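SECTION: protein entry
WANTED: fold as tokens:
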Amino acid sequence: MTVDHGVEPAIRADARRNRALILAAAQRALAERGAGVSLAEVARRAGVGAGTVHRHFPTKTDLLEAVVQQRVDRLAALAADHLTDPDPGAAFFAVCTHVIVTTPSNKDLCDLVQSDDGWPRALLRGAGNRFHRALGALLVSAQRHGAVRRDVVVTDVLDIFTGCVAIQRHRRAEDPLAPAVALILDALRPHPLSVTEPADADRNETPGSNEMPVPCPVCSAPVRRPATGRPARYCSPACRQKAHRQRNLITHVRG
């Protein structure tokens, strides 16, 4: 009996294709329905039989791990690719934004990657470590260029991801970053600018604009407050001189 060795590569290619279909379907199902999605639902979405899913992933835990590992490896590759960008600060914040916007709405990714209770297993922990190293290198590069605060470490960024994903999940996938998320990311910069207030240069053009004007004690006209130095008491040199004459007159009368 002879064996057609050309059949085995074709079977392997078919198996790889089915595995890719299952992972893609599981990724969509997880994003829409969370970790409670059934293997039967994944099989239906992938267009394969339930037995095919079980051959590749005997348990749902195996499937969840494979889905998250694939996603984390893609994020690690994205962060590594951005290390060669000419603007490390822009690259770092672009990766942060991508992670927050594209993470499934049930935020299983952040929760599982940072889990320390025996799951995820070594395979997923390895993917998580690769992502942490790539993100850490990107963070250090951004810090060296003055784009990110020096006191920020990778674990801070991961914690920020978890919180920001929880905020962003209430928005539609096509929506931009939530304003609160933009504020949190902006706080990573050495000198964050408020998104709701004008820059300091604009505020300095109208010093004291948020305070009630003080009336001149001589003529009752509003006193213009200087941007620096001691606050003015009179609206003009003429009123200051008049007040000086009045004080001298009072002193002379009392004497």
User: Anything to note?
Assistant: The longest helix spans residues 7-33. The CA atoms of residues 100 and 161 lie 6 Å apart. Strands lie at 214-215, 222-223.
